[in-house]
Amino acid sequence: MRHSLALLVTTAMCAVLSPWSASAADQADQISRGQYQAILGDCAACHTKPGGQPLAGGAPLETPFGPLVPPNITPDLETGIGSWTAEEFKTMMRTGIGHGGKRLYPAMPYPAYTKMSDRDVSDLWQYLTTVQPVKNEVEANQLPFPFNIRFSLFGWNLLNFTEGTYQADPSRSDEWNRGAYLVTGAGHCSTCHTPKSIMGADQEGQFLKGSSLQGWYAPDITGGNHTGIGSWTSDDIVTYLKTGVGTKTIASGPMAEAIENSTSRMEDADLAAIATYLKSLPDDSKATSTALPANDPRMIAGQAIYRDNCSACHSADGKGAMPLFPALSGNQIVQQGSPETPAHLVLFGSQGAQTDARPTNPSMPSLAWRLSDKQVADVLTYVRNSWGNAAPAVTESDIKKTMESR
């Protein structure tokens, strides 16, 4: 009798507690999935400024139209998204129209986020509601007239934006579709790597062909061998995204930040899917470049500067010493149409990504203190046209523009 009573009480308690436990477990799973969506979307890169509170608002983004400041997306009721509803958040991710009908500028990559599934958007929302609320008022729109008029975005969307979730290609593998979903959706790779029109929209037919970004150049990541990643294997891509170090290059600038905050924390299966998708992008580049002759005065001057300032690390033959000193020969970053990234590295130096897989991050010192604009232009011209490389010569004007972008 005593045993039967105990069993009855235990059964009753389980009946009461099980629904609550299942619900709590489901919610915990959703929050965990949402945290991963924040990693995939690299939310911290824009919405957390250096030294600031997580997701409480970021440092200004310098756009061709003026500065925009990523807002506070913590659940603070007054200065964050604490007064938003889940439906408002979904609408914002889908259409770029936020709380109170306010239109967002496409620097917030809703043209990519619109491709995310309802479940992933819902999971992200649930996660954001659990982060530490931070009271931090952010004036996001700091654009000059007339770009500060948000109603103009109505016309921008009509011309440049298509709403809709990602539709899988049934002729492709599940891995390829997962990679396409991540690259075109949450990962919003096109935001940096696709050239922009005069209106700031992705140029048609130039998907992931490379674009200028706040004094850096986000390189071509399509299938070309010269400026793209056609010579990279899938394993090369995965290793680079996981560690920040590739076969010939080391991540720098905004890409180093993206690797630290996002790709290095992705699941290996997702990195493999991204690699599979990127490797499928065709090499349809029509651009060609012929190396400058060795007797060109700029090449002669650049060679001397390289020998005195660069060869100790990158070697006289440009082969470097990976994983600390990247190879310059056959380096796609060096051969991009724009010299912005190598110019930025020489002028300001750089710190590589620090990841769990490679905690010791290499660095490049600034040489601006010892080289004139002409010397920087000459040494970059030499690097871009030696050891089988071929790219347009760099001018003093190019260097001055990079200096002004800082």
From TrEMBL:
Keywords: Cell membrane, Electron transport, Heme, Iron, Membrane, Metal-binding, Repeat, Respiratory chain, Signal, Transport. One of its GO terms (cellular component) is plasma membrane. Pfam families: Cytochrom_C (PF00034). The keyword Cell membrane applies. Heme c 2 binds at residues 189, 192-193. Its main location: membrane. SUPFAM superfamilies: Cytochrome c. Heme c 3 binds at residues 310, 313-314. It comes from the Bacteria. InterPro entries: Cyt_c-like_dom, Cyt_c-like_dom_sf, Cyt_C_IC, Cytochrome_c-type_DH, Membr-bd_ADH_cyt_c. Residues 29-132, 174-282, 297-387 form the Cytochrome c domain. Residues 1-24 form the signal peptide. It is found in: Cell membrane. Binds 3 heme c groups covalently per subunit. The keyword Cell membrane applies. Heme c 1 binds at residues 43, 46-47. Its cofactor is heme c. This is Mono/diheme cytochrome c family protein. It comes from Rhizobium wenxiniae.
